[in-house]
Amino acid sequence: DTGVSQDPRHKITKRGQNVTFRCDPISEHNRLYWYRQTLGQGPEFLTYFQNEAQLEKSRLLSDRFSAERPKGSFSTLEIQRTEQGDSAMYLCASSGDGTSGRAIDTQYFGPGTRLTVL
Amino acid sequence: EDQVTQSPEALRLQEGESSSLNCSYTVSGLRGLFWYRQDPGKGPEFLFTLYSAGEEKEKERLKATLTKKESFLHITAPKPEDSATYLCAVRHVSGGYNKLIFGAGTRLAVHP
Asked: How does DSSP classify residue B53?
């Protein structure tokens, strides 16, 4: 029973560069979420996928951010022209539809990707 | 607007000293209140879900309770390995999708 995995775990980049993160959800989960967490705060919602459809985006997700889930399995989050304010932990979570034995609306989180923009 | 407030921000306990963490919430129709544990540099780890006032859940030294306005996470006889940040979240449902709205967390340190 594998959990949510994220890659890379850490990313250091220079301001203005583009970065891409990957999330592999729990295999039977059709719902996938991205959150951002800064030091001393709880995670903040960014976006949500049901299968391959992106159904909701937070106003925190500026035009420089784009997320995809092309085949309804793994997802990528890309940040273009990174800024120092983008430095944060980016968390991915997934939840199922009740057939996996886990609660339908429980979101299980991955280990996160720590982004540092210099 | 849905909101979650956790107190205290930080709590220091001696091993064996029981205490409680508070999570106050305002939400238009509670669809679930969640407790997570987060260790430094890691993602949140699911602990409990509560759905209705009066509900209680237990796991080892942790017990979560829910009223109409707040939830408590009771820690009985804590050990140093219980040191972590405890996050509370409510489920916001809108337009057929759901997201979690988190509080800022309570940082718990248990000393031997």
From this structure: T
Mutate to test the interface with B, among A29, A56, A113 (most CBs of B within 10 A): A56
B102·A44 Cβ contact <8 A: yes
Q: How does residue A98 score in pLDDT terms, banded at 50, 70 and 90? A: low
Distance CA B14, CA B86 (A): 17
Torsion of CA B41, B45, B51, B56, to 10 degrees: -110
CA distance B105 to chain A (A): 6
Instruction: Strands of A1-118 (E only): list them.
Output: 5-7, 10-13, 19-24, 31-37, 44-50, 53-57, 65-68, 75-79, 88-95, 108-109, 113-117
Q: How far is A15 from chain B (nearest CA, A)?
A: 23
Per-residue model confidence as pLDDT tens digits over B20-30: 999 999 988 78
